[in-house]
Amino acid sequence: AQSVTQPDIHITVSEGASLELRCNYSYGATPYLFWYVQSPGQGLQLLLKYFSGDTLVQGIKGFEAEFKRSQSSFNLRKPSVHWSDAAEYFCAVGLRGGYQKVTFGIGTKLQVIP
Amino acid sequence: DAGVIQSPRHEVTEMGQEVTLRCKPISGHDYLFWYRQTMMRGLELLIYFNNNVPIDDSGMPEDRFSAKMPNASFSTLKIQPSEPRDSAVYFCASSFRDGNTIYFGEGSWLTVV
Fold this sequence. Notes:
heterodimer; A: about 110 residues; mainly beta; six-stranded mixed β-sheet; B: about 110 residues; seven-stranded mixed β-sheet; four-stranded antiparallel β-sheet; globular
């Protein structure tokens, strides 16, 4: 079975600083990879996804993520964080072959300080 | 298009009572998922349906939980009897076949006292 590890439960960055949220997965083949964001009291919203092709994926709100097969990683990045980015971020792994079971990581809570 | 619609948004109930959570998926989506989110366990998949048929219910915690999808536009998650440890946010989500992108509702916040 696939699994997802988000090693950082909580991260604090200053507004304007760069951000990198880590995600590692365990799966025998290349899975589908996602990053979702959850604002307080809200559902999860898709930021970006990797299915195939270019390993650098652009998403909404200025986020990007890079798939590195050799490291089994899919880290999320943003060059300059805004206060509105404070939220919880979830990495997720989906199996290929039409099987729709997606596994989510535990989440990383991002705090942005002025 | 409307997103995934869940009701109620908030519910407070007493232990032992029956709880029914409702979901309307995005029109045209073939898959419907029920997730539970807690601080301790994160986001857990409870059950999912494909074309109204339950495919995997291995995440359903126990017999007190049941889910149905009588048609393509409606699903329920029922807890009977409810217990305080069932307090959580329950998310319904849907996706189009083979797309793997899952769209979430805003959740039903359940408190069992």
